[in-house]
Specification:
The chain has 128 residues and is mainly α. The protein is built from six helices and no strands. It binds heme C.
């Protein structure tokens, strides 16, 4: 009886761990997102002056085209929305479709990569 109880507890723990793991991937995994950000960092810094692309620390909840000191395209300046998860996902999936005329030339095809990099960007506090 104690054996069965132990096994039962073990499989429960395993199911719980699985639920946590799959939950984390559905919501976006910031650790993997940091690796995905490697594909952005050729152009984007997290903070500080940048000529190639706007700094992305604190981009979630920031107005599109809102990083001070970066010369955005007219399209991004006119876009006028505040970045949230659905908008960022759509922009990263197809930049030129979400913001026609944007000067960001590349996106991310993989939905999980998008969720992960968005989770990573959410975890990076805005620069002060
Ligand atoms: C080849 C250079 C380049 C790469 C690579 C790149 N971007 Fe961009 N990104 C830009 C440029 C340029 C802009 C400004 C677009 C505009 O003004 O229309 C931009 C804008 C953005 C914005 C809007 C920022 C704001 O302040 O409104 C986000 C968010 C963004 N990029 C995320 C990403 C992510 C995430 C990746 C990696 C998956 C990535 N970018 C890869 C060049 C790049």
């Amino acid at each position: 009886m104690t054996g069965r109880g132990f096994l039962g507890a073990l499989s429960l723990a395993a199911a719980f761990a699985l639920a946590i793991a799959s939950g984390a991937s559905a919501a976006g995994d910031p650790v993997h997102g940091k690796a995905v950000f490697g594909r952005c960092s050729g152009c984007h810094a997290l903070s500080g002056p940048s000529f190639a692309a706007p700094p992305l620390a604190g981009v979630m909840g920031r107005k599109a085209g809102g990083a001070p000191g970066f010369q955005y395209s007219k399209a991004m300046t006119a876009y006028g929305k505040v970045w949230d998860e659905p908008l960022l996902d759509a922009f990263l999936a197809a930049p030129a479709t979400a913001v026609p005329g944007t000067s960001m030339p590349v996106g991310l095809d993989d939905a999980q990569d998008r969720a992960d990099v968005i989770a990573y960007l959410k975890s990076v506090p805005a620069a002060r």
